[in-house]
Structures are given as structure tokens and as C-alpha cells.
Amino acid sequence: MTWLITGGAGYIGAHVARAMADAGERVVALDDLSAGVPARLPAGVPLVRGSSLDGELLRRVLAEHAVTGVVHLAARKQVAESVARPAYYYRENVGGLATLLDAVAEAGIERFVFSSSAAVYGDPGVELITEDTPCAPVNPYGETKLAGEWLVRAAGRAHGIATVCLRYFNVAGAAAPGLADTGVFNIVPMVFDRLTRDEAPRIFGDDYPTPDGTCVRDYIHVADLAEAHLAAARRLAAGGVAGDLTVNVGRGEGVSVRELITVIGEVTGDRRPPVVEGRRPGDAPRAVASAARAAAELGWTARRGVREMVESAWRGWLLHHGDRVRTP
Ligand SMILES: NC(=O)c1ccc[n+]([C@@H]2O[C@H](COP(=O)([O-])OP(=O)(O)OC[C@H]3O[C@@H](n4cnc5c(N)ncnc54)[C@H](O)[C@@H]3O)[C@@H](O)[C@H]2O)c1
User: Fold this and answer.
1) Mutation test of ligand 1: which of 73, 85, 152 has the most ligand atoms closer than 8 Å to its C-beta?
2) Which Gene3D superfamilies does its entry note (predicted)?
3) N or C: fewer beta carbons within 10 Å in the chain?
4) Domain over 174-217+252-324 is classified CATH 3.90.25.10
């Protein structure tokens, strides 16, 4: 098989490209480089620069590379931006997916993996989120992921495409420093950024109904996440998915913001106490995956813990921002 990885020069996409190439899969990456970095891709993985909204380009790439499966990661992912620019997010995330699925169907491709998100659940108020927990996203970004899942399943049914939707929980870490997330939108780089600016980490709300009052999340190492994609691709290639499959990708273990900041203090050596500010609108008190279906259906379980995520992310941060980091 040959797999097209859209968003392949992105933080997660490059890890997926690397994991699949290392495992002997043939891959080609497509990325508009709006947030992607070509140097993240391993040698031997061709990169096509272009958008998932460009149907003509997609048809050409699928034909020229004889693509037989697609892993679709290309998307805009900033929640606050999605609130400010909803039409742009729907156009990029849902419109880009629709254009891609048309090209996939036309090319007769029968295997498709979609990057979804725990954001589809919103604030479900349950101890462990299963794939059957009702979806009620609380921002346009999460809505585009849920609408994307609906579209993926509908196109799968219409055109005989076997599909897997992977709902990622909170992604962190790096398989190598050069592959680290360069954006400052997720909590780990946000805390690194504060420390680098000689400022205390911020906690948004410590009066939630959780053990220490701060929000609880399920953190997943990006290298584990990449292996989940490989497992999904192989399951599809083996004909092991009849119709569609939707799977949480998490560790099934909750870590509070305060606990995470403590680990970051241990790893960076900067243990200054965090400052507590008001709650942010839309933050669920708890979002932890049930990881049972991923184990049963994909034979995949996360292997790396939170400390490994923070240590590897910190090595990446030092590579990209080391000149600004002072030794405590
Ligand atoms: N990072 C997370 O915590 C997280 C959690 C859940 C889901 N996701 C999803 O995972 C996917 C990858 O996220 P990431 O963290 O690697 O983000 P990223 O921004 O690093 O990667 C996205 C990549 O897609 C490219 N891209 C964006 N729009 C495109 C388009 N229309 N056509 C072609 N290329 C385009 C960007 O240049 C970038 O390289 C996204 O779909 C995101 O919604 C991420």
C-alpha cells in the first residue's frame, strides 16, 4: 500500500510519517506548510506542497503516487481562533475534508483514517469517556471535528471506504527534539513559555470538582499516538474494519494541571509555584478516555508516561528556544 499523509509536515503528522516509514510502509506527505516544517519529515518521504482544498492537486497526487490509503491530519487546530473565525475553520477543516473525500472516492481508494479529537465530547461529566459517550462540542473547532466524523462515515458508506476516526486526547512530547511542537497552544509548551519568560505558570481555576481543584486531562505521548495510526492503517490494510470504527486515543489515566506543573518543575528544575487565575470559559473539569476499545480493536495501548512526555518536550523546547532559557 501507499499512504497519503495530509498535514504530514505538522507536529503529529511528521510523527505519523516517521512511525509508518520506519515500519516499512510507503508514505507520501501533503502539507500547505501554513504550520508545517518540511525538515521534520524523514528522508525518503516525498512532500507535496499544497492544500486539502485543492481538488485538482489531490487527484494528481493520488494518481501519481498510486495512493491506496489516506491518513488525514491537515486541519486548523486553535480553539480560540475557531471561536473568532468559525467560517474559516469550517471551510478548512470540513471543506478540505469534503474535497479530499471526493478525490479519494474518485480514485477508488478504500481506506481512510481521520484525525478527530476529544473536543467532540465537550464537557460530558463522566469519569471515563467511552466512544459511546454523547458528543456535544463546546467550540467551533470541536464542531468541525464532529462534522468531519459524520462526513467521513457518510462518504465511507456511500463509496465503500473503510474508515477509522481516531479521537486524540491531550497530545504532548516528541520522539526527537526536532519533531517537537513549535506552537504554544497546548499546556506543556505554554508552561515552558512562561518559565522561559521568567514568569510563574498559570492555573486557570482551582475550584473545580476534582481532587486538587484543577482540571484533569488524559495526556498521550505523540510517539504512542503515531503508533496508534500505524495500528489503524494496518488494521484497515488487512481488511479488518467492516465499515467504520471510532476509537479514543488516550491512556485512560487522569492527570491534574497542578500535577502536570509539578512534573514540569522537576524536569526543568524551575519549581516556582504556579499562580491561580479565574476559570476559562469552556474548560471541562475532567476529560479522561476509556482506552479499552483501542486495545480491543487496534491491539494498541500507550506505553509512555507523563514524565517521558515532559522530558522529551523539554528537549525539543531547548532545541528551539534554548537561547532564551536561563538555568534556574
Ligand atoms: N495537537 C493536539 O493536541 C491535537 C489533539 C486532537 C486532535 N488534533 C488534530 O491532529 C491534527 C494534527 O495536529 P497537529 O497538532 O500536528 O497540528 P499542526 O498544526 O502541527 O499540523 C497540521 C498540519 O496541517 C497543515 N495544514 C493545515 N491546513 C491544511 C490544509 N488545508 N491543507 C494542507 N495542509 C494543511 C499545517 O501546515 C500543519 O503542518 C489536526 O487535525 C488536529 O486537529 C491535534
Assistant:
1) 73
2) NAD(P)-binding Rossmann-like Domain, UDP-galactose 4-epimerase, domain 1
3) C
4) yes
